[in-house]
Design goal:
The structure holds 2 protein chains of 2 kinds. Chain A is of the alpha+beta class. Chain A has 9 helices and 20 strands. Chain A has 2 domains: 230 residues, 3-Layer(aba) Sandwich (Rossmann fold), CATH 3.40.50; 109 residues, OB fold (Dihydrolipoamide Acetyltransferase, E2P) (Beta Barrel), CATH 2.40.50.140. Chain A has a 6-stranded mixed β-sheet with strand order 6-7-8-3-9-10, sandwiched between helices. In chain A, strands 13-12-11-14-20 form a 5-stranded antiparallel β-sheet. In chain A, strands 15-19-16-17-18 form a 5-stranded antiparallel β-sheet, with no helix packed on it. In chain A, helix 2 crosses helix 3 and helix 3 crosses helix 4. The model of chain A has no long low-confidence stretch (mean pLDDT 93). By secondary structure, chain B is mostly helical. Chain B folds into 2 domains: 64 residues, no CATH class; 220 residues, MetI-like (MetI-like fold, Orthogonal Bundle), CATH 1.10.3720.10. Chain B has a two-stranded antiparallel ribbon with strand order 1-2. In chain B, helix 1 crosses helix 12, helix 3 crosses helix 6 and helix 11 packs antiparallel against helix 12. Classes of the chains: A alpha+beta, B mainly alpha. The complex binds adenosine-5'-diphosphate (ADP) and magnesium ion. The site of adenosine-5'-diphosphate has 11 residues of chain A, from strand 2 and helix 1.
Chain lengths: 358, 299
């Protein structure tokens, strides 16, 4: 099912939960709503589910305006952050509850519930109460309950945030596989950008109730349209340095004090002549080398596979670099940095818009 | 005497158990007067007369056990009075439980004009002493009595009327309590049920109410006891023993004979306590559960 949000707004007095959101989700797509806590992700999701009435705007399911359709008639399944299982009901009764409400015949109800529970790997726990289950099992029950009625749209509200790291990783893959197999259009709310990047076909980045960007993970990562997106998407985050881009002897240079790097003309050309601009480069595109921009190591953070090195180039310019722990770098060491400027980004410091992709 | 050096363990042990006994001793002493009071009641009901805690006969000799104080149980009147009392108590359990669990839900979950004002007003209403309202209530009951059919059951000098007044006086507290219980149920559970396809009423009945069962039980017990022991309202709005309840009966009983037989009053009093005590024994486990955590959260 296709979902369309048009100018969708939710206000309580003068508090904005969601502020004129425009978005289209194609059939079978998994879209992640990504943003910090309190940015309006849940509000938007609950409007789609029919729990909140929009203050303004339109929600369409396959061209049909559903603003005034009751939640029970929207045929959506939802998984809550708190799981929201019914504590007084067994696993079987929890999962079969949507079918019972649809007055599905007893025998079919039994069969479908068992089928979904088996698919979720909790078929043997049917007689337990939620309190007797682990967090991961509760999560599966919640998922089963959302799936059992064969919904046209699945809504996930930070479903994995209460699980431990290892379980989160495996559930992430499992949800993605399920969604692909069943081909159900899905909205997946998260504040974890790794989750969004790995699972979503497209990511809607939100902040303070507004939709800031909407695109595929690659698009957001490689072609950030704003300074915020550049800094928000990717982990560890992008480095920003104020530079001036000038053309000299046919080559473009990004410069500040002792910092001088050559940038490819198709990028440098866009940034030249704007005075001071913000140069953005990801930690993985900076390397410790034998020659290049000099700097002094300020902090070393071991991440396991890599060390995250904070290098100070001058009083105001610092960059994070991913380096091999085998190099044995220490605080206070003097190093040289080489920049892979093929991936350089440039932003206007006033408008914070990209000079490359705006 | 054993020397501490040879048997230190034993010495410490006695001292420790002595120290442990002290609080119990003090507590026992402090409740003794009350225990003696109850003991007197029980002994008195089976005695001709009492001297202190000892039953005595007409000549003042120890002895004189008798069942004569309990002869009232063979009287049909006492059973009608007991039935009235039960009617008021059950009326309160059902009336207050039903209205408060609906009103409490609405106040907790729905947004409507005047919600805040209503909540404030409910609290103020509870502060009114029923004594202040007696005259007004009397007029209301007279008015209800004038309505055909309904008046027969809920007017002045009817058990239904008394129950109705008791329910109304207890509702502010009941509504507030229930609102509090509903407030503790996570919104997500309700939203989830709505999305699963339940109507608002089914959400209330199938999802929310089962989770505040302990709270409902507490309210029911509390109301049963209040209704069972009600005195002021039944005393004011009933005439004669046909519609009176046990506390009122007991009161009249101790007033209308010139020579009050306190032993008989004690027997009637004990009789009227029995159902509450039985009720309590059966429900105390449930009551204890309420204070040890209330609604058991699943997720
Ligand atoms: N029922 C409500 N009444 C008033 N304000 C609300 C309500 N629900 C959410 N908000 C506000 O709307 C904003 C967005 O909330 P929410 O959608 O829950 O954020 P998120 O899910 O992204 O963390 C927050 O500022 C929050 O305080
Ligand atoms: Mg949220």
């Amino acid at each position: 099912m296709k979902v369309e949000l048009e100018n969708l707004t939710k206000r309580w007095g003068d508090v904005f939960g969601a502020d004129s959101i425009d978005l289209e989700i194609t059939d079978g797509e998994l879209v992640a709503f990504l943003g910090p806590s309190g940015c309006g992700k849940t509000t938007t999701l609950l409007m789609v589910a029919g729990i909140y009435k929009p203050t303004e705007g339109v929600i369409r399911f396959d061209e049909r305006v559903v603003n005034h359709v009751a939640p029970k008639d929207r045929n959506v399944g939802m998984v809550f952050q708190s799981y929201a299982l019914y504590p007084h009901m067994t696993v079987f009764r929890n999962i079969s509850y949507p079918l019972k409400l649809k007055k599905v015949p007893q025998e079919e109800m039994q069969r479908r519930t068992q089928q979904v529970a088996d698919m979720m790997g909790i078929g043997h726990l049917m007689d337990r109460k939620p309190a007797q289950l682990s967090g991961g099992q509760q999560q599966r029950v919640a998922l089963g309950r959302a799936l059992v009625k064969e919904p046209d749209l699945l809504l996930f509200d930070e479903p994995l945030s209460n699980l431990d790291a290892r379980l989160r990783l495996s559930m992430r893959g499992e949800i993605k596989r399920l969604q692909l197999e069943l081909g159900i259009t899905s909205i997946y709310v998260t504040h974890d950008q790794v989750e969004a990047m790995t699972m979503a076909d497209r990511i809607a980045v939100m902040r303070e109730g507004k939709l800031l960007a909407y695109g595929s993970p690659e698009e957001l990562y490689d072609r950030p349209r704003t300074l915020f997106i550049g800094g928000f998407v990717g982990n560890p985050p992008m480095n920003f340095v104020d530079v001036e881009v000038v053309q000299e002897n046919g080559a473009y240079h990004a410069r500040r004090g002792g910092f001088d790097v050559v940038v490819p003309p198709e990028r440098g050309g866009q940034a030249a002549g704007h005075g001071t601009v913000i140069f953005g480069i990801r930690p993985e595109d900076v390397a410790i080398a034998d020659d290049g921009v000099p700097g002094e190591i300020y902090v070393v953070e071991p991440l396991g596979r890599d060390d995250l090195i904070d290098v100070r180039m001058d009083e105001e310019a610092r960059v994070h670099v991913l380096a091999d722990p085998a190099l044995g770098l220490r605080i206070g060491d003097n190093v040289k940095l080489r920049f892979n400027t093929d991936e350089a980004q440039f932003f206007d410091p006033e408008t914070e818009q990209s000079l490359l992709w705006a | 005497m054993t020397t501490p050096s040879t048997e230190p363990g034993r010495e410490n042990g006695t001292r420790r158990s002595l120290r442990r006994a002290v609080p119990y001793l003090l507590l026992t002493l402090s409740v003794l007067p009350i225990v003696i009071g109850y003991a007197w009641v029980i002994i008195a009901t089976f005695s001709y007369r009492t001297k202190g805690l000892l039953p005595i006969d007409a000549e003042g000799n120890i002895g004189g056990f008798t069942l004569q104080n309990w002869t009232f149980v063979s009287d049909a009147e006492i059973w009608r009075v007991a039935l009235n009392t039960f009617g008021i108590a059950i009326g309160m359990v059902i009336g207050v439980g039903f209205v408060s669990s609906l009103a409490g839900y609405a106040l907790s979950r729905m947004n409507f004009a005047g919600r805040k004002g209503f909540l404030g007003l409910t609290l103020v209403l509870h502060a009114f002493r029923p004594e202040m309202l007696l005259i007004a209530i009397f007029h209301v009951l007279l008015f209800i009595g004038g309505i055909p059919l309904i008046g027969k059951f809920f007017g002045f000098n009817t058990v239904g009327g008394v129950a109705l007044v008791m329910v109304s006086l207890e509702l502010p507290l009941g509504v507030w309590l229930m609102k509090g219980f509903f407030d503790n149920i996570p919104w997500d559970m309700e939203r989830s049920a709505l999305i699963d396809g339940a109507s608002r009423f089914r959400v209330w009945w199938e999802i929310i109410l089962p989770q505040i069962k302990p709270g409902l039980a507490a309210l029911a017990i509390f109301n049963f006891i209040t209704g069972w022991n009600a005195f002021l309202i039944p005393f004011t709005f009933t005439l004669g023993s046909k519609v009176s309840n046990l506390p009122v009966y007991l009161n009249r009983f101790s007033e209308d004979t010139s020579m009050v037989s306190w032993n008989q009053v004690a027997a009637v009093g004990l009789f009227s306590l029995l159902p509450v005590m039985i009720f309590f024994i059966f429900t105390q486990e449930m009551l204890l559960e309420i204070y040890s955590g209330g609604a058991k959260g699943g997720a």
